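Entry for the shared binder. Reason: the reviewer on the internal report wants the predicted structure included alongside the sequence.
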Amino acid sequence: MAIAAPQIYVYKGKSRDGKPVQGEIAGATTAMVKAQLRKQGIQPRTVRKKPKPLFGGKQIKAADIATFTRQLATMTKAGVPLVQAFEIVSEGEANSTMRDLIQKIHGDVSSGSGFAPALRAHPKYFDNLFCSLIEAGEQSGTLETMLARVALYKEKTEQLKRKIKKAMTYPTAVLLVAVVVTGVLLIKVVPVFAQTYESFGGALPAFTQLILRVSEFVQTWWLLVVAVAIGTGVAFAQARRRSPRFSDLVDKWMLRIPIIGKILNEAVIARFARTLSTTFAAGVPLIEALSSVAGAAGNAVYRDAVLKVQDEVATGITLSASLRSTGVFPVMLLQLTAIGEESGSLDDMLSRAADHYEEMVDNSVDNLTTLLEPMIMAVLGVLVGGLLIGMYLPIFNLCNVL
């Protein structure tokens, strides 16, 4: 007979001393929840399933999972039992959706399921790498140490993502503002000048005529322009999600973008080294570790390269030689990998490589931001200044005639 999946229940009742109590608890059925409450000394009066939010709860982000893992690692290190750690983390969680997830995992573990199987029931939030590392910790009796390693891995990964977003957010935001400002000028300001110039009766400068035509086009078709822009973005996102071939082509193209491509390459190398270091240190066999690394690479070029390395390592070729044969990994990583293999400290060397490339990403992002600031100001100056100059040219010409 299949056991129902744990759900969140809302209860009201009385404690042993007769005081009214209420709260939330995870359980498979109403009867099991009532039995669990009685064991805790609570006489339940009403028990019902927690209703789902009308518009959905707050989404769970990767940063929430990283924080959850770090909290568990800290508590287990302090000697707090795992089940009790779930209760403490759940009570302090502000995100209701994340709290529900923790309570479901708590319910599974309390009912006798292992920690790793409880996590595998939620693949949307816990990938195969995460679950494999926790499973290795459970089997070896080193769950406390493994939680700390996984927490560090998730924190480093999220820190790297934030650096990449930092590199892209500022220029994207400024360019969007530039587009909006330019659109407002073309739709609201330029027509006012156009009405004024109609009374002049003379020929307008070519640049001014060009701006007036662009303004007329934008006024007539701005809804179509916005719809095409949004449609193109949605179509691109859908094509990348549904077509592996198109997604692979985009990944290859992004690595070739000047400056941005360099940052992406460094980020992928850092992620590769960090993931392989974590899995290898956890005692996962190298071939299995490479499979997890390929899935976590985040780029098709490096994913294919890692899968090729996995095939070569399975035939007895050393990791450093296999990485070198792909032609995509930098010399420094190859050298550190070779040193690690020779000295028996591969996980330590890969961790140092990850630290190095994460620092390179940080420096590259700072340099990119410094470089983009004057370029963005120049773009804004050309767009806005060009429009203003084009509109005032007839006035300047009229002053020269007078």
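Summary line for the report: Confidence is low (pLDDT under 50) at residues 1-5.
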